[in-house]
Structure to design on (232 residues):
């Protein structure tokens, strides 16, 4: 299985297991489990270029995923978080870190601390294990995320249930503002991560400029070349 095929299957898994099991006509139980053999057969039937697909390919994708997005038990498989469909996820609630983290826009911090964090269009609030995990999660939609810290010890003691989902993600129905604190922008994890992003962005900009220059040179050379019939 090539990297391209693995990435494509990963996207299909996310669609089926988190949002639309009906897309490939598979039955999902109340806890989010589907039969991986049936799913592989359905995909192979609908997408002929995946005629080779077998259930063990999904297990390989799950095993290689460092975030623990998927869980495999025998022939059954499910996503551990990110659902937009109503499920009753029977995830573990033990071994919750003393603090978890949530990314947001800088201007959102005061509102979150006052009113708390709500799930929005997801079924749960997604919290991260570390500041760096939260920065990476937030960077998908925010150039330079701010981070709030959640006092999970007090939250759990007060009756809020937090679930372990994957290796770096935790789920909760909501988090009231009384458990939230801003992580200062000069926190070493934030400063080091931003510095790394700036370096990567600078390198990407240089690479883009070089590619553009090479394309311009190639276009100029092609324009200056005599027509084929003149060369003859």
């Amino acid at each position: 299985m090539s990297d391209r095929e693995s990435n494509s299957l990963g996207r299909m898994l996310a669609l089926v297991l988190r949002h639309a099991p009906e897309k490939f006509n598979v039955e999902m139980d109340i806890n989010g489990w589907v039969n991986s053999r049936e799913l592989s057969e359905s995909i192979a039937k609908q997408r002929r270029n995946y005629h080779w697909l077998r259930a063990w390919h999904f297990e390989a994708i799950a095993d290689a995923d460092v975030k623990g997005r998927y869980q495999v038990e025998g022939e059954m498989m499910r996503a551990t978080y990110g659902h937009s469909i109503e499920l009753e996820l029977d995830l573990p609630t033990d071994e919750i870190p003393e603090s978890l983290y949530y990314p947001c826009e800088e201007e959102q911090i005061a509102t979150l601390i006052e009113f708390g964090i709500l799930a929005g269009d997801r079924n749960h609030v997604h919290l991260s294990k570390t500041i760096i995990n939260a920065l990476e999660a937030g960077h998908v939609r925010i150039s330079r995320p701010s981070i709030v810290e959640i006092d999970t010890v007090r939250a759990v003691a007060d009756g809020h249930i937090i679930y372990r989902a994957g290796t770096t993600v935790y789920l909760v129905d909501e988090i009231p503002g009384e458990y939230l604190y801003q992580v200062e922008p000069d926190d070493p994890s934030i400063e080091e991560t931003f510095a790394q992003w700036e370096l990567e962005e600078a390198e990407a900009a240089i690479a883009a400029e070089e590619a553009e220059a090479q394309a311009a040179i190639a276009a100029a050379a092609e324009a200056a070349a005599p027509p084929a019939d003149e060369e003859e």
